[in-house]
Structure formats: C-alpha cells, structure tokens
Amino acid sequence: MAAEKKAGAAQKKHRSGTTEARTLKRKRDQEDLGKLQEAVNELDPKSPTIKAFTDLPLSAATAAGLRSSHFETLTDIQARAIPLALKGRDILGAAKTGSGKTLAFLVPVLECLFRQQWTEYDGLGALIISPTRELAVQIFEVLRQIGRKHVFSAGLVIGGKSLKEEAERLSRMNILVCTPGRMLQHLDQTAGFVVDNLQMLVLDEADRIMDMGFQSAVDALVEHLPKTRQTMLFSATQSKKVSDLARLSLKDPEYVSVHEAAESATPATLQQHYIVTPLPEKLDTLFGFIKSNLKSKIVVFLSSGKQVRFVYESFRHLQPGIPLLHLHGRQKQVARLEITHRFTAAKHACLFATDVVARGVDFPAVDWVIQVDCPEDADTYIHRVGRTARYESAGRAVLFLDPSEEEGMLKRLEHKKVPILKVHVKETKKKSIADQLQNMCFQYPDLKYLGQKAFISYTRSIHLQKDKSVFKLQKLDLDGFATSMGLAGTPQIKYQKGGDDVKRIKNASRAALSSGSESEGEGGDGKKKKDEVRTKYQKMAERVNQDVLSSHYRKLIGDGSDDEDADFLSVKRVLGDDELDAAADEAGAAAVAAKTVSLGKQEFIVDSHRREKLLKSKKKMLKYMDKGQKLVFDDDGNAHPIYELQDEEEFKKQGPVEILRRQFVDTEASRVREVDVEDKQLAKEKRQEKKIKRKEREREEELAAAQAAPKAQLEGADGDAEDPLALLRSLPAPGGGADSDREDGPPKKKAKKWFQDDSDDEREKAKKKKNVIEMDREPDTLEDLEDMAARLLEG
Question: Region (Disordered) spans which residues (predicted)?
Fold first, then answer.
C-alpha cells in the first residue's frame, strides 16, 4: 500500500513538472512574441542600414528557414518592401525581373501569421494569387523552403486535378497559392470553405491578373474576401490606375519602385538586340540561329499555342541537333510540370513557349531569349526577356521584327527606357528550310493541318492587336509566310471588325484555362447546358488538352461552337433539312438520262455522270473487254491454243487408259535416252576441244620461253656452231652445290625454328647423303653426261 502511494506521488509530481515546463515555455514564447512585436513597432521602414535578413525583426522559424535556403543579403525590392509589409501597410511593388520579388511578399506572409499565432482551426490566413500555373508552382516551392520551420499548413490550388480532392483539404489550409479562376471555382462551389478570417492578399504579376483577361474573375473573387485585410501587389511593370486600386480596396498603399529612376527597366547584365527580318524569313532565321547555338539554353517565344506546336513538330523532324521542348496553355497539368522540370534540369535545350512562362518563372542559366513574334506591348517584352539575366547573371535577348513593326515597336521600348541595338544575320548562317517544310507537309497531312491552324492563329493575333501603329496586317506578306511554312496555298480567312471587346476576345481562352475547368462546354456557373444536344465529335472537341495531331481532328464538323477560330473560318450559308431535301430532288431531276451502252459482249446501263465517266476510262473498263486467246505454233506453222483439251469421246476411242499411259511412258523414255546420248556426245566433244586448246597454249608458252632464253654456243673458230654439251655442262657437278652456281637469284633461306633436337640433325645428314652421287671419273663424253643426268633425275 505504501509503495502504491509513493508511485502515485511520483507520477503526480512528474505531471506537475511537465505542466510547469509547458507553462514556462508558453510564457517564454509570449515574451519572445512581445519582444518581436515591439521590434516591429520600432522598425524604421526607410532605414538605409537594412541590408541583410538579420537586420529585420523576424521570428526564429523564418530566420532559420532563410539560413537553410542560403538567403542572406536583401535585394533592393526586399529591403524596401519587407519593412513596410511587416508594419501592416498595403504595398504596390515594382522591380525588374529576377530581382527577388517572391521573398518580398512570402516573408511578410509568414511573419504576419506567426505574430497572430495562427493555427489550422483559424482557417485561411493568407491568399497568394498568380496568373499562371508555372509561376504558382514556383512560389509554392519557395514557400516550402523558407517556411519549413513553421507549423502552418500550405496548399497549391491551380487546377489539373479533381475539384473534390482539393476541396477535402482546402478547409485545413492556412496559406493558399492559387490561380484566379480555380480559386473562384472553390469559393463558389466548395461547401465549408470560409475566407472571413483572411489577413493578407497577395497578387504576383498584378498587372497581368488585373487586366481585362482576368477582370471578371478578380472582381468576383474580391467580393468573397473581407474588407479589412492587408493587400500587396507585385510586378515588374506595375499598374497605378485608381480604378484597379479601388477594385481591390487598397487603403493608402505604399508605392515601392526600384527601377523608375534607373537608366533601364531591364537588368544591366542583359544584352538586347533586334533583327529586322521579313515575315516569310522568320522560320529560316530561327532555324539558322538554333543551328549556330547548339551548346546553349534557349527560350523561344511565339504568339499562340498553335504556332508553338507547329514550329516544335516541324523542327523536331528537321533535327537541328539540340533537345527540343514545347510549352503552352493547352497541355495537361502533368505534362506542363514535367516539361518545366526537364528544361530546368537541362544543360542545353530549346524551349518553344507562349507567354504562359513569360512572367516570373525562374529557369536557371538561360543563355538566350528569342522573341520570334513581336510582343503586344513593351511590358510583355520586359517580362519575356526577364527569363534570362536573373539575379545579376549575364544573358542575351534577340527580337525578330518585320520591317512594318520596327519603327512603332522601337518607340514603345524607348519610352520604357529599354536599350536595344540592331544587328544583322551573317549570310553564311542563313539556312532555308521552306522546301523541307513543304516536303514534310506533303508527307504528313497532320503537319499540314497544324500549319494551316498556326497561320490562322498568327493572323488572328495580329488582327486583334490594339496598337495598330505597330501591327499592320495589310503590310505583312501573308502569301510568302504561308509558303515559308510549307503550305501549298494561303488559307482563306474571313475577318470580323474589331470593337471594344477585342482584348476580351484575345484573352478569353487564357481566362478559361486559368479556371482549370476540364470542359469548355461548361457555362459560367460550371454546369452543362441540359437542353444542348451534342454529337460524338463535338464531345471529343470539348477536351481542353487534346492533341491536334489525333485522327478525330480531321473528322470534326464545322459548326464553330468549340473552335476558337470560328470567327475567321465561317461558312456563308448553312442549309436546313427542308433545303437539303429540295436540293436532293433537284439533283435527281438533273441526273443523266439512263441509256444502254454495249462493250464487247456485255451491256452497261449509264444513268449518272459518274458511270459515263467510268465508261470513257480504258483502264477501268479493261476487265470487261475481250482480251483474245493466246496461241502457239507447231512445226508446220499451224496455230493452236496454248492449252488445248481433247474431246472425251475421241480420247476413249484410242484404247484403254493403262495401255495409253504405258505407251506414253515408253515413248518419253526412248526420247529421253536419245537426247541423253546426244548430250553425252556433245559433252565429250567440248572436253576434247578444251584439251586441244590447252595443248596449243602450252606449246606456245614453251616456244616463247625458248626464244627468250640465251643460246649455248660451241667454242670454234667461226663461233656460229651450236655446242650440244652446253646444256648438260650447266647441270651441277657431283657433290657440288648447284644452288651456289645459279645466277638467277640468291638461295632461299630455310625457316628458322624456335627449338632443334638430335633427330633433326640425323634427318639433315641423311638428306645430304641421299642427294650425293658418287662418280668413278670425270665425265668426258656425251654418254657420261647422259648417265650422270639420269642418275640425278632418279635421285
């Protein structure tokens, strides 16, 4: 009993000690929080001594996250914006691309929620809105790095995934990074998602979010948010319009700009050039540039997704020698993220892209930014070239301008303080690919179709541009442009007059894409129209991220309801059912009167123009014509069919079948024997003829050798008589070395061996003994020499 009391007392003491420790920790945290708040209140936001993150009154968790991510020194925009944001002021931040604007609003977001001791039960505390999915993913990754020591929950809402899966986690998030359309969809449709406690609203690339393409989505989104909140807007080109600020309910915002007083709106380490190239030569110039920079990392901007797909597919067939990638808003989210990751990790690559990656996206070590299509304004140009020369690194940019665009665009860039120089392409670097593109368009109908859509898309973008002093459609060589794309002819386009809604039409597809809706057939409230009847191909066309090279694209009906180019490719008249029936009756009445035509032994009824045309084709009617009969001629010159069958009755009159068969076999056997004898005799004659020819050839060779050899002469007074012993005297003497007396060449050397034994010596002695001929006396007469020669030959 006493032991149990002691154990209970010890446990009680332990619990009391744990409670006291928690109380002390909570008390220390409150004291630290109070000190942090006092430091923020005493902070001078315009102090010139703030140059590092350690100079700011930050929480320990944020400071540790920044150190772990190797962020130490403040950039200009961070040094001016973060102190003001820590004090709760609304901010309009403008700075050059790549100047570190992301940390300028992420650090205040973490600090604001930390000082208010925000928990998951308090709901959504901060909302960060980005115009593109790629930029939203990048912001979220930076937030994860610097906020790793905090206990806040953060989420990424950009579409591409199930709306239901996102809604299940949405209510537990403290910080959300999102795109405008997808966020608005959750605010309208997700039950239990409350934003009444929102403390901070951040708009990155605010000028793009607040333009006419996202205007309706932003206005509807702001209506759901509380009025008492802190708002921050950041962009490389900031909007200061009163109407925009009133829409967001900003209260006395601080305008923070770090490049207005500078000489240029772009980084000083960025080398900017432009090339004047006519529209038909743009693709040739681009291909030549890529071939000359295979060891570089290049981003190529085009005006539309269809152009991106056409240029990517065409250059992929041409194989310039560098990895090619393409990125546009019509791709699925998984594909967009994968391509972004591949290009980020690549050392050498070329990315064809639309303006979906023109803002804020940080691709490391980009060497070149090429703008094949002229940007719509100077702000877009600044954002595009900002993909290189980031964080004080070097970079180069080239802008392709048609001669009609040069003067107007240069004035816009000069007004924005953008230094740009004119350069020319070397003649040796120019490469013409028009013939190759034309050949590919003939071989691949899908590529031809894609080229036609790209041409229409480019022309449409020029037609809808607001700045007509730069974009002059009438001065563009569209026929030459179509030829340079490999098209056999210029696609016919029907234009509509542009009005006040031109900007809205141009950005309609982008706004729809940002909502993340997986179906273009949805209405404004996300519900499908129940009374609308759609065909199979119309349903297939409603897929947002379909592949234009798929087979069903060639089967689409042309009602124009799902095609963004419907305003330009429209039929003059659509026939109804009654009109179609009437047209069919008229066609039947106008048909060719039926008539009968004889061809050979066959008769044909002609009741249409098609059959009449077929009857005039000799190739088509060849199978119905009498082709005649093939004949053979016997020895007497009489013609017979090549296959002639005997009458059955006449065959039976000749006798029994077995006797006829035996007679036929005997006849054929005797004929074969006779032919065999003739063949053998002919073969024998051929062999004899070959033998005679061979002997004649040998005699001719011997005669030629005898004439070439020196003649042996007998010693005499006259010196003309032949010496009959000369040949025999030239033979080797007994025991002498015959080889040593020859004058026709040196003696042959014997092959050396790596080893030698006694048996080899014995064989050599026996061989020498065998070759020795013993003579009793010196040969004097002809008989002695003949005897010696015979013995040599026998030996």
Answer: 1-36, 510-532, 671-786
